[in-house]
Amino acid sequence: MADLTTRLGELTLKNPVMTASGTFGYGFEYHKYYDISRLGAVVVKGIRMTPSHGNPTPRVAEVTGGMLNAIGLQGPGVEKFLHGDEYLPFLRRVGATVIVNIWGTSIAEYGEVAARLDAESAGIAALEINISCPNVKAGGVAFGTDPKLAAEVVSTVRRATGLPLITKLSPNVSNIGEFARAVEAAGSDMISLINTITAMAIDIETRRPKIANRTGGFSGPALKPIAVRMVYEAARAVKVPVIGMGGICTGEDAVEFLLAGASAVAVGTANFVDPHAPLAVIDGINGYLDRHGYRSVSEIVGALEV
Amino acid sequence: MKNGEIIDNIRLKNDYHIVRFFAPEICRQARAGQFVHVRIDHRGDRILRRPFSIHNVESDGALSVVYKVVGAGTATLAELGPGTVCDLLGPLGVGFSDVPADVTPVLVAGGYGAAATFLLTRQMTQRGIFLFGARSSADVILTDVYHRAGYDVRIATNDGSEGKKGFVTGLVEQLLAEWSGGKLFFYGCGPHPMLMALARQLHSAGMPGELSIDHLMCCGVGACFACVVKIKADTPEGWKYARACTDGPVFNLDTVYVE
Asked: Phi then psi for A17, rounded to 5 degrees?
């Protein structure tokens, strides 16, 4: 059994496997399948100041090797997240390592949400700044596809909290390294990538888009090679730790990301296929390390031979 | 037999099939209106599970699901033979509630929605009325099992090829006009437009009931927020989105929001 302890700057996790925001609800939903405190971290669905309805339905469509979604960040708002029994109080009770994904429709709102969470931060390990959701009209990816705005969001959140900050980058840009460097310079302690890739699917019988939002974010195993490439590029561009995700279903998938330079990984769409997927990924990483005689997971981070 | 193993998988009629899985744990817990989330393809490139209403459960652990071949997932399912093991999650979701014995249950189903209301005939001792709507006689399924359960079965088809010509809401209208018995309680399951028409009709008649509102589902456990339906709420808009998989799929008529 190799040492899976994962150090991400000042944040230490028991293992490198997290859940990707938006694919794991608020943790509560999966705790009936296994003890979610076994995960490196639970990254909850995006939180903003106020409750949001999200997008009209249909919100998802299955495609070859994955799915499109345009949920639109439906959520309870920060106050209910802080005090509603099935949200943060539940996560604290079960001892989960919690990373709160945050978003806003203005740069100021990002700062307000961060300040609000900072004020009651017991049980919160880090914040993940979502500047990459492709499915909301204001906020989200609008801030993630302009490096100046991305940096401005990060520095606003940085001023609002002392919690470790992760910035989740959009893959819908041509030079990922530029964005990684911009958010690093603005004070992000880590970066995570990739979010979904903007995509479209059409029902040819009705000649309508398969999802109501017209476009959605593509996720699932078909995405993995693109994600690995972007993680590789981002990890070479910055000194801060990188959290890699995009199509991870198995431990072997996760190892690719670690070799490419990610210090930790997240499991997303695979949660929908198998609620136990993150545990299988932890076991799979461990099996790989044992097979190859590594004593700790940190030994393979960025160990790609070129 | 392994958990999730297919016992048999046979054609009911045309594109409609019935599959029985060995699933004793799920059978023990299942209630009418709940569903199982089935991983059909463990190797291919269609990765998502498919949700199916639980049609029936037997004491020997056989759980049956009725499905229509409508796409890639159900086409694959139709090809699976006895002995194939599928991964099942369930029973999931909020099911229908029972009503007291002095209330007459009226089951209103459209198409394969008829599968989801059947367990009600076993959960409650009183006999009720089964109103079934389908496109044409080619889509009339399961009426025999409701007959055998002692229900008063009435059929409507859009083209008039079997039963009364028109929609199932026509049968509801007729029942409401002629009924002189005691209290009624409605249970609905079927396509979305049918359920919305039924909700409108029952709201204006002041009738109590529950509807199973089934939307394109993804995780099945409440995490992804794909399958949401509008329910009445104290918001500026008068509604909010609730998850069909965990807040439903069965919703009380009082909360169902009709646009």
From this structure: -105, 120
Nearest chain A alpha carbon to B39: A273
- In chain A, what are the domains? 6-54+72-200+218-300 (3.20.20.70)
Contacts of A32 in chain B (CB under 8 A): 221
Domains of chain B, earliest start first: 6-92 (2.40.30.10), 104-213 (3.40.50.80)
Cross-strand bridge partners of residue B27: none
- Taking 70 as the pLDDT cut, the residues of chain B under it are none
Record the pTM: 0.95
Name every residue whose Cβ is closer than 8 Å to that of residue A35 and which is 6 or more positions away in sequence. A94
The pLDDT value recorded for residue A59 is 96
Nearest chain B residue to A31 by CA distance is B221
**ipTM, interface predicted TM-score of the complex:** 0.93
A302: exposed, middle or buried (Cβ count in 10 Å: 0-12, 13-18, 19+): middle
When pLDDT is cut at 50, 70 and 90, the band that residue A143 belongs to is confident
Residues A43-69 pLDDT 10s: 999 999 999 999 999 999 999 999 999
Inter-chain residue contact B45 with A222, CB threshold 8 Å:
yes
| Residue B185 near residue B208, CB atoms below 8 Å | yes
